[in-house]
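for the writeup, i need someone to sanity check this before i put it in the appendix. the sequnce is what the collaborator sent (i think, or maybe the updated version? ugh). structure was predicted straight from it, no edits. if anything looks off just tell me and ill rerun, i have time this weekend
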Amino acid sequence: MGASYCGAESGSNALISRTPRAVCRALQVGWAWHNRCTGPVMTDGALRILLVDQNMTRASILEEGLREAGYTSVTVVRDMQNLLRRIVDEDPDVICIDLENPNRDVLEQMFQMSRVVRRPVAMFVDRSDSDMIRAAVESGVGAYVVDGLKKERVKAVVDMAVSRFKAFNDLREELDQAKQALGDRKVVERAKGILMKERGLTEEAAYALLRKAAMSDNKRVVEIAQAVITAAGLLR
């Protein structure tokens, strides 16, 4: 199977379309990736790889390495214009980016893209420094390879990017869940306080009332608590 090429070679540094719609769609795509990868186990060959590379020769090396490693769905993007939009449209499982001789601005734009799309990202560069390596890690780039463009290494690099992305995503979900639980608890505590004040109830009785209402309406306790808070605000 031949590569699918998107666009023509371009030297422009206008890498990312920053339209709000594109960013929102990228976040939705991130959740879609999570749903695919937490469902039935995907084989390596089933992964959709998006290869971003302006250099035809270097892109051929990476593409050959990917196909030899068993990846059958490889799309090569050579036009850097509106890269975020292109990523959203292609909806890949993994993004491989090769930057032959990037300047700091180009790298920072790529790191920004990595933060938004929520995908495993493997990045190949010919040169870098400690600040850029740190920025790559902070942006969520799973594999950042300096001066190591060899087709024999491609599978190991992609595997590393996917593994680190999953670990990072699991930690982020745990943090989000903890924040949500803390927020829900604060809402329930506030609603209990309102009921205790307005109805002269004990804390236990106030919570029991919230729980009874939640069971009756087939809702979560926090939803009933939020309704109590909203109603109390309207009656002031």
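The longest strand covers residues 48-53. The beta strands are 4-6, 48-53, 73-77, 94-99, 121-125, 143-146.
thx in advance!!
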